[in-house]
Each structure stands twice: as structure tokens, then as C-alpha cells.
Model the fold of this input.
Amino acid sequence: MFAVIESGGKQYKVSEGDFVFVEKLNVEEGTEVEFPVLAVSADDGMKIGTPVVEGAKVKASVVKNGKAKKIYVMTYKPKKNEKRKLGHRQPYTKVQITAIEG
Done:
């Protein structure tokens, strides 16, 4: 059984026990969160929502909040002696899928 959930404007295909890195959520570690379900597969077939499946829920527990590896961005203009180096670390929330209902 799997489900397609939405978080932070992105969609994730998850099943029970999966660890997923989603866009940062404003919750503490160890709390339970629920995600809207866009599609869910079951024994009797696939249910697809318009836009969400009614009565379906995906529960997850927050494992940790953190930041991804640093990426560097360079801008450069030739013959003008203009260079700039920027770094960015994207914040994320790591969740573990505990239950899929629906």
C-alpha cells in the first residue's frame, strides 16, 4: 500500500515506515503530523482525489529538523572584475510515515 502526499508544494510517494525529507515544517521533534492525500492505492484499486481523497489520512512523526548540505552559487561578469560567491543551506524536516488510512 502506498499514498501520494503533498507538502510544501511538492508531491511524495510514500508507504508505511518510509523516511521522507520534506520542506521545513514549524513543528517540534517527536510530534505527529498529518498530510493531505492526493492518491492512495489499496487492495481494491487506486483512489485518486480531486484534489484530495476524502477520508484518507497519512500520519507521520517528526524525526528531526535540520539543514541540507551547503551549495555554492557563483555569479561572474567577464571583463568587469565582478564576481560573487553565495552559499545556501536549505532547511528540511525529516519525517517517518507511521500510518496510511483510507
Observations:
- The first strand starts at residue 3 and ends at 7.
